[in-house]
Amino acid sequence: MKLAFFKVFRNLSFRSRITVIMFGLLIGVSSLLFTWHMTNELKNKERYDVELWALAMKHAEGYDRNDPISLHIIKKNNNIPFIITDLNLKVKASHLIDSKIIDHPDKLREQIEAFSHENPLQLISVYGGATYYLFYGQSGLLTRLFIFPYIQLFLITVFVFLWYLTLKATKYHEQDRVWVGLAKETAHQLGTPTSSLLGWIEYLRTQPIDQSTVDEMSKDLTRLMKVVDRFSKIGSETALVPLNINEIIGNSVLYFRTRAPKNVTIGYNGLAIAPVKANINETLFEWVIENLLKNSLDALQGRGQINVNISYDNENINIDIKDTGKGIAPSNFKKIFEPGFTTKTRGWGLGLSLSRRIIEEYHKGKIYVTESELEKGTTIRVSVKRVV
After folding, report:
1. Where does residue 291 rank: exposed (0-12), middle (13-18), buried (19+ CB within 10 A)?
2. pTM score, whole prediction
């Protein structure tokens, strides 16, 4: 039944979902107000019964367990605790009070003070000159009713929180499906022209022209085909295999070195240290490195330095990409990985968001800003588990 409800709820429009949820909240709040009203009604009734009992004792010249009125009221309200004392607070009678409290002066005083806060003291002056104090508390039923609204309020709060999470997850899921569909459709649409370009490059190889130009065109087409492959993998099961991190990052660095502005240098220590391996998907992991390198190039604005450094221990491999660009404000360290966030005049703000998803969801690693200072540069670290 629950599954059927969620299926129906999921198929409703966004406005209809809001209407259903608001109707549910209205019912919850109405129930809460009704419970509070009933609790106050019961409290007033119990107070009236005790006042009536006090008045009966006054006319009966004192408390008598065998008095018909006392018996009737106690029987009817047998879960109302009370203490009757003289003016010196010496206990004359009690009901539903533990003997340990009655026999202990300090505990008795605390109980009397507690009753005094719950209900007004009843002063009974009986015929004959005797005067008694009647201290009484709330019945067990009234106590439970007082607690019940708070339980309802807690449940309503939980309901609102779960509603918020459901709404957020539904919205995220819908957006996710749109982006996955867009990525796969892009890969499909690019498939035909890339195949055609591959045929043209093979044709150019047979012609009497400078083949170095054809080789460069072939490299760029290979890169384009990698992009198509990356888009096709979004939203699909991703196979991870142990690969040499040094070599994969090195290929990306070499590619950007030949295409970076002449006043930009890109350093890399990976080829000078021992190879290290991690379980990765080469196509997607390479995409992350390229996104980070491209962001660093954009931050440099045609002049500066990028350093790519690999470090590792027995458990993790850390790849630090450091640039001397314009830097990031501390308040934006986490925001830069959110979809749509960008400081560029052009751009969709999806590169770092996609990189985080690839590293954290597919590779179970981490990506974050380790340090940044405005107008001095930024260092972003990618950390993945090492395979020994």
Report:
1. buried
2. 0.52
